[in-house]
Amino acid sequence: MCGIIAVIGRTPDRAPMNPVAILGEMGEAAELLANSSLGDMDAASRAIGLAVRHLDVVDLALRGPVGVMTLLFAPGLIGSIRDGVSDIAQRIEEIEVALDAGEVSGDGQSLEILNASLVSLKDKVWAIGRDRLVTAEAVRDLARIDGTAESGIAKISAFHAVQVALSSLDRLEVRGRDSAGLHILVDDHGLDLASDEIKKLLDVRADPLFTSGAVRAAGSRLGFVYKAAAEIGELGDNTAALRAAISSDDLLHRALMASTAKVSVLGHTRWASVGVISEPNAHPLDNTEVSPGQSNDQHLVAVLNGDVDNHYELSQAEGLHISGLITTDAKVIPALVARRRDEGVELTDAFATTVKTFDGSVAIGACSAEAPDELFFALRGSGQALYIGLADDAFVVASEPYGVVEETARYLRMDGETAGGVDGAPGQVVVLSRDGAGTLSGITRMAYDGTTLPISDEEIQVADITTRDIDRGNAPHFLLKEISEAPQSILKTLRGRISDHHGRLVPSLSDEVLPPNLRDRLTNGGIRRVLVIGQGTAAVAGQSMAATLTELVGDSLVVSALPATELSGFGLDDDMSNALVVAISQSGTTTDTNRTVDLVRSRGAVVVAIVNRRNSDLCEKADGVLYTSDGRDVEMSVASTKAFYAQVAAGVLLATAISVLVANNTGTRSDSQVVHELLAGVRSLPDALQTVLGLRAEIASAAQQHAPSRRYWAIVGNGPNRIAAEELRIKLSELCYKAIACDATEDKK
């Protein structure tokens, strides 16, 4: 996978908020929290909700270029806000400590409301302290503002757009990071491009391979590109290199001094699939060809996610003259669009007709110096996505929602699979206009055949995550971060859900988890079987829950665990009204699990979800929901760690609660000692995990001593492919044997 980011905005016209008023809102929030008492959980939730409203005013005031100017040029404001954020964060920690210590009493529903309020409060505190303050300080460094004089809104807006793009690239690097690039198109810069000084600077940086630092002049516009490429490195290295290059570029800074200057930004982070890892292959790519007779008067750049499967055939058919050092398929995009323009095809049509010729699943972004106030996008096929974020006076486009949420939670998702237009072909083309930036009026959408596709307000979605959910903190990668967070994730999963009843631990789940009608059916025997489903590690966690429940209820229920795909493919009955289906998912968006939930519910089954994403699709489909952690502990790494552990803990909670209800039906008493011991064991897990994490040095030493020193490969295949896989295994074995024999005889031929 790769990642696309683009930003285009208009000059903001809203008035800045008075710094005194901003601090007043912060103070009101802090006072509400300081005076809130956990003795009344409902009152505490209301106080937290009011505090969130005050902080929301602050967050909105500090967003965008206007907010950045407010922060940078109001003396002492950043420090005062940082202190206020710190005080509120400390109060949040005090509340959570009290909750985890069992010092707060209340029913399950009140606890869920309080937890949801705390999540909203954390989001706002994070947004102000980490998104707004960090953005302002980053813009200050990029724009080289020394505090001696205020910079104009044009310069702040330009570098704010650059910072938004760099920050998004940082997050999108989980999709691929072997190289990255950022293109900044500058219009109305006020520089005299005909002067000897500027011409000399442009000649020096007129790199035909469009590597880092290259500059293109097209008419009165300037296109700057910055790139980094490295096969080995850490997350964040690429954007750090881009940031340093942009900050030190004197020509760019001169171009952005004019009060009329405007920019559009197009960036990309790459996971190379076609073409080697190099700066010439790093996106964005421009339209420059190496033909001696080519004028290269145009300046078009493009980025690509996915593969243009027929790029070689198109290049040959069109006679493109591409440098041998550029081997990525993305190069054909700007080159072919430029060819269409040379033939007199209007720019939007040139882009649309070009992308229509591509085979494969693609997401494409492009810009042209000819139309500096527009950005062009295309999406077709599965596996790719583009989200158009509607920010204040700006569009922020990214391959993932977490690429836009720093600036806005509202977005329009492009659809590359649904048939549209007259010919019914899938795929969409979108053109964004600066004049309508941040609004639906600035979006023109059409099908691949050119048919206009109107956009309605109902299509605008609201993200249920923030940058808080996808922050690596000080960890070098997400896997280590999430392993380290596992104890806290389990602790939050158990919060308020285990009670002490006459010296015995008992499960305490709210009606949001086990609705009254489900409790009744478990008690009176209306539920006779429990099916636990999931995909991947969620299915493995389901096996743990099924085993626990079977041990507790014996023959009172028929309990089984299986992948969701197996249930939907082979295990459905016409009448499933006697079944409880427990669906487990980290994201709540797992297609196979959600589809199976739809099928079992249509046959009368009751569904309880174990999920870690509030407001996700699975939550909407289920009759009851048991959130892992606080319902927002998103896991980013490929390997499941804290999410899996929390699912296991949640499964034990749910199994014990079901066993107590079923025991009431059978006329027997549940083995309270077994339940007590199970819950005590689960409650001890966070401390046990913390102990293991404290042994990192010893574990690392053991791993180095015992880990395999050679790589092992598995060759797999299904059906007729199994024969081909076996043939390949035999051939590779022969080659490896010959290689070992050659090495033993020192015959290197």
Outline the structure in words:
It is a single chain. The protein is an alpha+beta fold and 749 residues long. Helix content is 44%, strand content 17%. The protein has 23 helices and 22 strands. A nine-stranded antiparallel beta sheet has the order 3-4-2-5-1-11-10-12-15. A hairpin with a 2-residue loop joins β3 (215-218) and β4 (221-229). α1 packs antiparallel against α2 (41-61), α3 (64-73) crosses α5 and α14 packs antiparallel against α21 (672-693). 46% of the residues are buried. The mean pLDDT is 91.
Uncertain stretches: none
Number of helices: 23
Helix content: 40-55%
Taken from the alpha-carbon principal axes, the silhouette is globular
- Radius of gyration using CA atoms only: 29 Å
- End-to-end Cα distance, whole Å, is 38 Å
Quick check: average pLDDT? Answer: 91
Strand order of the largest sheet: 3-4-2-5-1-11-10-12-15
Could you tell me the strand content as a percent range?
15-25%
The number of distinct β-strands equals: 22
Largest sheet: 9 strands, antiparallel
State the secondary-structure class: alpha+beta
